[in-house]
Amino acid sequence: xxxxxxxxxxxxxxxxxxxxxxxxxxxxxxxxxxxxxxxxxxxxxxxxxxxxxxxxxxxxxxxxxxxxxxxxxxxxxxxxxxxxxxxxxxxxxxxxxxxxxxxxxxxxxxxxxxxxxxxxxxxxxxxxxxxxxxxxxxxxxxxxxxxxxxxxxxxxxxxxxxxxxxxxxxxxxxxxxxxxxxxxxxxxxxxxxxxxxxxxxxxxxxxxxxxxxxxxxxxxxxxxxxxxxxxxxxxxxxxxxxxxxxxxxxxxxxxxxxxxx
Length: 261
Hints:
four-stranded antiparallel sheet, five-stranded mixed sheet, 6 helices, 11 strands, 261 residues, Immunoglobulin-like, alpha+beta
């Protein structure tokens, strides 16, 4: 199983957490046990009922122990009403007692010292956060597979040539028995490397590596793509890794016309 990065459209393994071609990180899958634990942790009214029952028991014991009047024991709501009424009547008296009979005279505010008479000086030091620059990249690493666009099978023995766009530097590599290639290139300050692929029986023009859903297309749709690639000459794709992570790029070659029909 595989998936594609929504940012750079690079095909990566399904279990991968980070895209090897760009800084994108895939969201972590939700653990079924964690989800079950979250669902089970729901609010229950049982603690509230237990608390109300304890309050009722304590109130009944208090009425019996303190020898409350018979009317309180017959209807506990009367005791609550009387208690609330007593607190309401005592509130104005408590407020009057808390208010002082007189207020002390306020002291006049002192004049603010002038700039020359300041007793102390405040020195503000701004500290700038110095971010450590990333280490320089010493090499670019490229890897991927070369496939047959019609059969979607890996192609062994395909020769890949990576050329620097601003000079004549060239790097060659050949796919192994599994159709996989690996190479290390010199990092460039600007631009990238153009990729050229050659294999007997296949067109020199390959499908754009950014094309999506190649494996989901039907055989008829892939046959149309093969014919289009055999009749046109496209500009080679420019490859440029990001940082020190390897750039994973897969190529699809179109077989020549007699094999497509």
